[in-house]
C-alpha cells in the first residue's frame, strides 16, 4: 500500500511564474468615470484560484466599489455577472479590497464599478490569467486522506467477507466451515478488486497532475540570428495557456503567432539588453516577415551577449513576452529611425547602488521622486507603488518640450539584474495597452462623456502631438521580488527619444 500513499501527493514540479516575465500581478491606474483609481490584481498561483483585488481611490468621495471578473473578448465578454461588493477599509476609507474566483486561464478582465458623491463610474482592467505553478498537497491532509483510504478499503473487504459468511445465518448460529472458506475467497477477491481500483485511481490522479503541470505558463522562447548587413531575424512561438481547466486541463493550441495585434503602434516591441552589465539597451520595433518571424535592421551595436525580450499581444488581448539571447559581434548598423531608440551608459554597480537621477543627452535630467514612491526609506518588494519621474531641462527647470512617445507620456522597463524579471510598464500600469483598448471597448460610455478610464494626461493625447505634456511621468508598478533592478524610463522631448536609467534594490 505504499504506492497509493505516494500517489496522493502532487509534486511541486514547476518554477516561478511568468506573465511579463516573472511579474504576474497587474498594476493599473486610471479613471472610473469621475474617480481616479489605483487597482492591483494579485493573481492566484493556480487556476481556478482566488485573485486578491486592492483598490485605492485618489479622492475621498468613493463610497462603494464593486468588482467582477469576465472574459476580455469573445463569448462571455458581453454578459457581466453580478459584481461583488469590495470591502472598505475601516482605517483607510479610500482603500477597498476584495477576492474574486478566476475560473479559467487566458485573457480576462476585472470590471471595477465605483459609486460615490459624483455618481457612478466604471473601469476595466485586463488580466492575463495563467497557471503559475503546481501546489503541493499539504502534508497533514495527505496523512488524513491516506488513513481514510485505508479505512475504506479495509471496510469494503471486511463487509464483503461478512456478507458471505454471516448474511444468511439464523440469529445466534455460528458460520459453517464452508461459509468461512467462501468468505475468505470473496475477501481475497474483494482485496484484489479494491487494490485494482486504488491503482487505477492513482493512475488517473497522476495523469491529471501531469496535465496540470503541463499547463503551467512559461515565457515562450524566441530564437534570433544575425544576417548579413546587420539584419536580425527572430522566430518565436506563443506560450501555452489553459483555457478551461476541468476534469482534464485543456491547453490552448495557440502555439503560433498568427493572431497578433499592434500594441501602441507596433506588432512587436523588441528589447536588447547587454548582460550582465546592462550597459547597452535597445528598444526596437521589428517588422513581421511571415507568421511567427520578424526582422529588424540593427543600429550600430557593440559586441556582447544580449538578452532578448520581445513583447507581443494576441487578438484575445493576451500579452506575452518572448525570451531569448544572442551573442552579437560589433555591428556597423543603420541609423535609428521611427520609434526605435538606444541607450548606452554605466554598468550595473557591484555592490548594488541606488540612483535617483539620470542625465539625458541634451544635459537635461530625469529625476526619480523617490520620497513619493517609497514607503519609508527602503523599497519593498510586492508593494504597489506609483513611481514618479520629473523631467528637467539643461537649466534644471521643468522641461517644456515633452511630447507623447508612441501615444504615451512615457514607457518604463523594469529588469532584474539576473533578467528573471522583465516588465514593460506605462502610465496606465503594467497592463498591455492593446488589451486595455479591448477592455474599454466593452464599457458603456458614461452619460457625461468623460467616462472611460484613460485620462489623456496619463495616456498622452494622440490627437495633439504638438502640444507639450506635463514635465513628469509616473508608472504604477510593484517589484515582484527582492533583488537589484535597473529601470529604463523613456520619454520624448522635441522629437528626440530620451532614456533615463535608474538602479534600485528591492527588499
Ligand atoms: Cu511601451
Short key terms for the protein model shown above:
507 residues; alpha+beta; 5-stranded antiparallel sheet; 29 strands; single chain; disordered N terminus; binds copper (II) ion
What does this structure look like?
Helix content is 18%, strand content 36%. The chain is built from six helices and 29 strands. The chain has helices at 2-7, 139-166, 177-214, 370-373, 433-441, 456-459; strands at residues 26-32, 35-42, 49-57, 62-71, 84-85, 87-88, 95-102, 106-116, 119-129, 222-227, 231-236, 242-244, 250-251, 269-274, 280-284, 287-290, 293-297, 304-313, 319-328, 341-344, 357-359, 365-368, 385-392, 402-403, 411-416, 422-425, 472-477, 483-493, 496-506. Helix 2 (139-166) runs antiparallel to helix 3 (177-214). It is elongated. Mean pLDDT is 87; it is low at 1-19 and 446-465. The structure holds copper (II) ion. Copper (II) ion binds at residues 264, 406, 411, 424, 426. The site of copper (II) ion (CU) has 5 residues, from loops.
The count of helical stretches stands at 6
> Which stretches of 5+ consecutive residues score pLDDT under 50?
1-19, 446-465
Helix content: 10-25%
Overall radius of gyration: 29 Å
What small molecules does the structure contain?
copper (II) ion
Strand content: 35-45%
What global shape is seen? Answer: elongated
Q: Which strands sit side by side, in order, in the main sheet?
A: 1-2-3-7-6
Tell me the structural class.
Answer: alpha+beta
Overall pLDDT score: 87
Major sheet: 5 strands, antiparallel
Tally of DSSP β-strands: 29
Tell me the distance between the termini: 46 Å
Oligomer description: single chain
Amino acid at each position: 500500500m505504499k504506492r497509493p500513499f505516494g500517489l496522493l501527493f502532487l509534486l511541486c514540479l514547476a518554477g516561478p511564474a511568468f506573465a511579463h516575465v516573472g511579474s504576474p500581478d497587474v498594476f493599473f491606474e486610471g479613471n472610473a468615470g469621475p474617480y481616479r483609481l489605483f487597482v492591483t490584481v494579485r493573481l492566484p498561483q493556480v487556476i481556478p484560484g482566488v485573485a486578491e483585488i486592492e483598490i485605492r481611490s485618489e479622492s475621498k468621495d468613493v463610497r462603494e466599489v464593486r468588482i467582477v471578473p469576465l472574459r476580455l473578448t469573445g463569448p462571455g465578454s458581453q454578459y457581466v455577472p453580478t459584481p461583488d461588493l469590495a470591502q472598505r477599509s475601516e482605517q483607510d476609507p479610500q482603500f477597498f479590497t476584495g477576492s474574486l474566483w478566476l475560473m479559467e486561464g487566458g485573457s480576462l478582465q476585472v470590471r471595477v464599478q465605483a459609486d460615490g458623491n459624483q455618481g457612478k463610474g466604471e473601469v476595466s482592467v485586463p488580466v492575463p490569467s495563467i497557471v503559475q505553478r503546481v501546489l503541493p498537497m499539504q502534508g497533514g491532509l495527505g496523512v488524513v486522506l491516506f488513513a481514510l483510504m485505508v479505512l475504506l478499503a479495509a471496510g469494503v473487504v471486511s463487509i464483503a467477507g461478512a456478507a458471505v459468511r454471516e448474511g444468511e445465518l439464523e440469529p445466534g448460529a455460528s458460520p459453517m466451515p464452508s461459509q468461512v472458506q467462501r468468505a475468505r475467497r470473496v475477501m481475497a477477491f474483494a482485496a484484489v478488486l479494491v487494490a485494482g481500483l486504488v491503482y487505477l485511481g492513482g493512475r488517473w490522479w497522476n495523469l491529471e497532475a501531469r496535465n496540470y503541470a503541463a499547463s503551467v505558463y512559461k515565457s515562450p522562447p524566441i530564437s534570433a540570428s544575425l544576417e548579413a548587413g546587420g539584419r536580425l531575424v527572430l522566430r518565436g512561438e506563443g506560450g501555452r495557456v489553459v483555457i478551461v481547466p476541468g476534469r482534464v486541463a485543456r491547453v490552448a493550441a495557440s502555439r503560433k503567432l498568427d493572431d497578433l495585434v499592434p500594441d501602441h503602434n507596433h506588432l512587436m516591441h523588441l528589447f536588447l539588453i547587454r548582460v550582465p552589465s546592462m550597459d547597452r539597451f535597445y528598444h526596437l520595433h521589428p517588422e513581421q516577415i511571415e507568421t511567427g518571424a520578424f526582422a529588424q535592421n540593427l543600429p550600430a551595436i557593440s559586441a556582447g551577449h544580449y538578452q532578448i525580450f520581445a513583447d507581443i499581444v494576441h487578438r484575445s488581448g493576451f500579452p506575452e513576452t518572448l525570451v531569448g539571447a544572442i551573442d552579437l559581434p560589433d555591428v556597423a548598423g543603420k541609423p535609428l529611425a521611427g520609434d526605435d531608440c538606444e541607450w548606452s551608459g554605466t554598468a550595473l554597480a557591484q555592490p548594488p547602488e541606488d540612483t535617483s537621477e539620470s542625465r539625458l543627452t541634451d544635459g537635461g535630467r530625469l529625476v526619480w521622486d523617490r520620497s513619493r514612491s517609497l514607503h519609508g526609506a527602503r523599497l519593498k518588494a510586492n508593494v504597489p507603488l506609483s513611481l514618479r519621474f520629473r523631467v528637467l531641462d539643461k537649466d534644471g527647470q521643468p522641461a517644456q518640450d515633452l511630447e507623447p512617445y508612441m501615444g504615451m507620456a512615457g514607457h518604463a522597463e523594469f529588469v532584474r539584474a539576473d533578467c528573471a524579471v522583465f516588465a514593460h510598464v506605462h502610465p496606465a500600469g503594467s497592463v498591455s495597452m492593446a488589451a486595455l483598448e479591448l477592455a474599454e471597448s466593452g464599457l458603456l460610455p458614461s452619460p457625461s462623456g468623460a467616462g472611460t478610464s484613460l485620462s489623456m494626461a496619463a495616456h498622452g493625447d494622440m490627437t495633439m502631438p504638438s502640444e507639450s505634456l506635463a514635465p513628469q511621468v509616473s508608472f504604477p508598478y510593484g517589484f515582484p521580488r527582492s533583488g537589484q533592478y535597473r529601470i529604463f524610463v523613456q520619454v520624448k522631448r522635441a522629437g528626440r527619444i530620451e532614456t533615463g536609467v535608474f538602479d534600485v534594490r528591492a527588499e
